[in-house]
Amino acid sequence: MVDQQREVQQIAAPLAAALCRWLAISALGLALANAAGRWSYRVASSVSADVRDIFDMSLETSLATWLSITVFLLLGGCCFGLGRLRRRSAFYAGGVLFVYLSADDGAMLHERLGRVLHPYFDTGPVFVWVVVLAPLFVVAGLLVVVLFWEAAGAGRGHRRLLVAGSIAMAAALGIEAMEGVVVDAEIRWRGLPLERYTGVLEEFLELLGPILWLRVFGGLLESDFRRVSGPPSRDVELAEPRRTHLDQLAVGVTARASARAGSPGSRARRPLGPDAQKRGPRPQVISLPE
Question: Exposed, middle or buried, 215 (CB in 10 Å: 0-12/13-18/19+)?
Fold first, then answer.
C-alpha cells in the first residue's frame, strides 16, 4: 500500500498542470478554427456550414461550449473537495457558483432570461440580462474574491494565475456586455462587422480564464490531498508478511547473545592450561529443540 500511495502522489503531482495545459491548447485551437471560419472568405466558401458550426464558439452546440461546461464542472468539483477538506463554507458556495455557470453555458440561462424580460425593460443597447443580473454579479464577484483570498497563500505562481484568469474573465464579460453597442456601431474591417472579431476574442477569454482558475484550485486540492493522506496507516503494517514463531525465537536469541557478548560486565575467557592445549579445543554441543 505504501507503493500505491507513492504512485498516486507521483501521478497526482503533475496531473492538474498537465490537464490545464492541454485544456488551454484545446481552447487556443478552437479559437483559431473559429477565427478561420468567421474571418476567412476562402474557408467560409470551401467548408460546409455544418462543419464550421462545430467550431463556431458563439453557438451553444459547439465543441467550445462543451469544453467550457467541463471546465466549470471540474472547478465546482475542486471547490467542493476543498470545502470538504478545509471545512470552509466559502468553497461550497464557490462550487455551487461554478456548477451554475456550467449549466448556464449548456442551457443558455442568461440569454433566455434576457429574452423573457426584454418586453418589460428598456435598457437601450445594453442587454437586459446585464442590468437585471448585475446585483447577482456583484455577489458572485465578492464570493470569487473570498475564494481567491483563500487561494492566495498557495504561492506566487498561483497568485499570478489567479490574477491572469480574473483579468481574462473581466475582459470577456466586458466585451459581452458591450456587444449590443458594438453591433449598433456598424463598424466594419476588411468587409466584416466588428462583432465577428470581438466575438472570437470574447469566447476565447471566457475559456482561458476558468482554465487558469482550474490550475490553481486543482493544485490546492492536490496539495491538500497529499497533506491529508500523510504517512502510511497501520493497515500497511498489518499487510506485511508475518514471521513464524521459530523465526521470532531465533531473532530473539541472537539479539540476547549479541547483547551479552558486547556488555562491559561480561567475563573474559580464562587462558587454557598446558593440558588443555594438548587436548585441543572442546567440542561444541548443540541442543536441538524437542
Answer: buried
* 77-135 pLDDT, tens digit each: 999 999 998 888 888 988 998 998 898 888 877 777 777 777 777 666 567 776 777 77
d(CA 109, CA 97): 14
d(CA 94, CA 108): 20
Q: How many residues does the chain have?
A: 290
Q: What is the spatial distance between Cα 76 and Cα 99, in angstroms, rounded to a whole number?
A: 5
C-beta of residue 254 within 8 angstroms of C-beta of residue 262: no
Q: Three-state DSSP class for 253? A: helix
The torsion region of residue 47 among left (phi > 0), alpha (psi -120 to 50) and beta comes to beta
Find cell 456601431 and name the residue: 185
189 phi/psi in degrees, rounded to 5: -140, 130
Taking the C-alpha atoms of residue 241 and residue 236, their distance in angstroms, rounded to an integer, is 11
Residues 6+ apart with CB under 8 A from 93: 143
| Residues whose CB is less than 8 angstroms from the CB of residue 16 and which lie 6 or more positions away in sequence, other chains included | 214, 215, 218, 219, 221, 222
**Apex CA 32: angle with CA 30 and CA 38, to 5°?**
100
Is 133:114 a contact under the CB 8 Å cutoff?
no
Q: Is 90 exceeded by the pLDDT of residue 11?
A: no
Sign of CA dihedral 192, 195, 198, 199: negative
Instruction: State how far the Cα of 146 lies from the Cα of 149, in Å rounded to an integer.
Output: 5
Residue 189: strand pairing partners: 192
Locus of grid cell 523465526: 247
C-alpha cell at 196: 465577428
- Whether this model's pTM surpasses 0.90: no
